[in-house]
Design goal:
428 residues, 17% strand, D-Maltodextrin-Binding Protein, domain 2, Bact_solute-bd_prot1, SBP, alpha/beta, two-stranded antiparallel sheet, signal
Length: 428
């Protein structure tokens, strides 16, 4: 049977990249995708999937929108154990060790010709590959990646007598600015908080926005040891606690991840920390001028990277695995990485994406979109270990205990360290 021109092009593209071969006709992939941030992300993904199917008519993608990142990894692990694993998924980069330990995924090295693999893997920002590679293998391909950034309301800055074009550069500046930005009514009730750092969902990630500038790295590269109880880590937690409990410029207790942008839009918060993946959401919904900045420094600048990678599953057939690798490559090509970044606010995953005309034009009109990329120079890997969910939970639970006032910073980090050491003992 004579192949169509489009099928021929798809096959040629696969061979040029060096995949073991093009997917056979009528290959169907089940694709788990997490919906974890604001904005019409599912529509964007639907559109990209449809475009991929047009370019690769022998491959069909069945997209399953799997909820939050936590929901997604839980559903993936349940499906793997039940013999119904997806072919390909986007899950947190930090889920890499868990998926390896479960023998659920295959490295991309096995799906790409050796002479092409190095070029492909090196095309991404090194900061994003830190959570994508281990043991000399590449297990994840960066897709929707991020750093934490600070958003500020320029109108609120003006009202407080602050320079609306100048974000806080240091911890001390953020504390001082937050004090001026916090508003109270006649009865003393707060109507606008100076700053808000979410502590639900994945508080460990936001916490790394404090520990990294203070010179602390929370886990080793092998994912077998954490450093939760180091003095620099305790100091970072104490600063976060003090913003709420001592300075009273930050909401008390647990700050919800999902509602923080809404509080910012409603002017209940003047500065917020959240993912750059919320950038398009903020741009669409903030009815005031806002700025985006790198996180304030202590000893240095710094943020963890974040977000999701593509993974290919071991239970998939050889043809499905080849098609899944081709899908990951197609979705992360420079032009599409630029398109994805512009549509969502996630950081385009390769330097080449920032050289596209679309991205250059976008940055010329909206320079704030370049902040997360620039911060990559100071970024570290997101906390990731073996048995990552439990090790991260040990930290999350103790962070929340400290932020709600039931533990001191030192005790919380001592307890988190003890629990993590107990869990990781089996991996040393």
């Amino acid at each position: 049977m004579r192949m169509s021109r489009r099928t021929t092009l798809a096959a040629t593209a696969a061979l040029l990249l060096g995949f073991a071969g093009p997917a056979a006709a009528d290959t169907t992939l089940t694709f788990y995708y997490p919906v974890a941030v604001g904005g019409p992300v599912t529509k964007i993904v639907d559109g990209m999937v449809a475009d991929f199917e047009k370019d690769n008519p022998g491959i069909k993608i069945k997209a399953v929108y799997s909820g939050s990142y936590q929901d997604t990894i839980a559903k993936i692990l349940t499906a793997v154990k039940g013999g119904d694993a997806p072919s390909v998924a986007v899950a947190l980069s930090t889920d890499m060790f868990t998926l390896i330990d479960e023998d659920a995924i295959v490295p991309f090295d096995d799906l790409v010709a050796k002479d092409k693999a190095a070029t492909w893997f090196k095309s991404f920002y090194p900061g994003f590959m830190a959570n994508s590679q281990t043991g000399g293998k590449t297990w994840g391909i960066p897709f929707q990646r991020s750093t934490i950034v600070l958003y500020w309301n320029k109108e609120a800055f003006k009202e407080a007598g602050l320079d609306p074009e100048k974000a806080p550069q240091s911890w001390d500046e953020m504390r001082a600015m937050a004090a001026k930005l916090t508003k109270r009514d006649a009865a003393g009730a707060v109507t606008q908080w100076g700053v808000s750092i979410p502590s639900s969902g994945f508080p460990y990630w936001l916490f790394q926005g404090l520990t990294t500038p203070n010179g602390a790295i929370l886990a080793n590269d092998a994912g077998t040891q954490v450093a939760y109880d180091k003095p620099e880590v305790v100091e970072a937690l104490q600063y976060w606690m003090d913003l709420a409990q001592k300075d009273k410029v930050h909401p008390p207790g647990i700050v919800e991840w999902g509602t923080t942008p809404k509080d910012f839009f409603e002017k209940k918060v003047a500065m917020m920390w959240t993912t750059t993946g919320n950038l398009t959401n903020v741009r669409a919904n903030a009815k005031f001028d806002f700025g985006v900045a790198m996180l304030p420094a202590k000893k240095k600048r710094g943020s963890p990277t974040g977000g999701g990678n593509f993974y290919v599953f071991k239970a998939a057939s050889a043809e499905q695995q080849k098609a899944a690798a081709l899908f990951a490559d197609w979705m992360t090509k420079p032009e599409r990485a630029a398109q994805w970044s512009i549509a969502t606010g996630y950081v385009a995953v390769s330097p080449a994406a920032f050289e596209t005309k679309a991205m250059k034009d976008y940055l010329a009109g909206f320079p704030a979109a370049g902040v997360a990329r620039d911060q990559l120079e100071h970024a570290v890997a997101e906390l990731s270990t073996h048995d990552n969910q439990r090790v991260a939970k040990a930290l999350n639970d103790n962070l929340q205990a400290a932020l709600t006032g039931t533990k001191t910073a030192a005790q919380a980090m001592k307890d988190a360290q003890a629990e993590a050491d107990r869990i990781l003992k089996a991996y040393k």
